[in-house]
Amino acid sequence: MTHDNAGGGGPGHRDAAAHRGRGRKLADHLVGRHSVPRISRETLRRILREGKVSWQTTTTWKASTDPDFITKMHRILALYDTPPADGRVICVDEFGPLNLMPRKGKAWRPAGRPRRLRATYNRYGGVMHMLAALDLATGKISYRIRTRKRWREFLGLLKTLRQRRPGEKLYVVLDNFSPHKHAEVRTWAADHDVELIFLPTYGSWLNWIESEFAALRYFALNGTDHRTHAEQNAAIAAYIRWRNAHAEPKIRFAPESPIRQWTDYPAKAA
Cis peptide before 97, with omega less than 30 degrees from 0? Predict the structure, then answer.
């Protein structure tokens, strides 16, 4: 059994206490290094705020070896910024694996009564995979959940997208997962007015659907402990229905990001 939120105070109380603790440690560090003779936490907080310095999570950066990174990136950004008049842009990717397991998360609960999830489990239910497509023109997501994610399953998704949008060219943004590049997939796409636009290697963050997967994980899976795939799939379906009911066209992809000014590929994150 997990013991998150045990004892007095809720998450907000603990976050505030941790923030005060960080400020106190930084103040002590500055005094210890003789940067200042003394400084109050309030003064330090004001200096950090005015300097736009905040406590942030450290992330990793996977450098791409793709020699055509900039060309591919700008092609995708151009499709995002100016959708083609003869069709629509659709971002496609796989989400998963969908295991049956307890997942940490947050939820509204009575104070002092956090939900408890089992800490040990067995993966007897097998694994499922979600294949999903984000239509930028509508902002809606379509998906299917399958036991495999081979080229056959991927091609099936493309055929469904093609049937739903007759008479329009489909510009499909996707990564370099081998089933996406299968000869059968490429041949079918060329014959059915579907252009496959591959991301640069290690450039999955350019796929607009990635942010939707983050929201899906947060709202549909975090804090759950589904015992069957039918139960978990129902939770995913409920979220997608709610999300699509509130969907709007996807515009303005990272408008203020430094990537907009890149003329060559940096060796590390901007």
Answer: yes
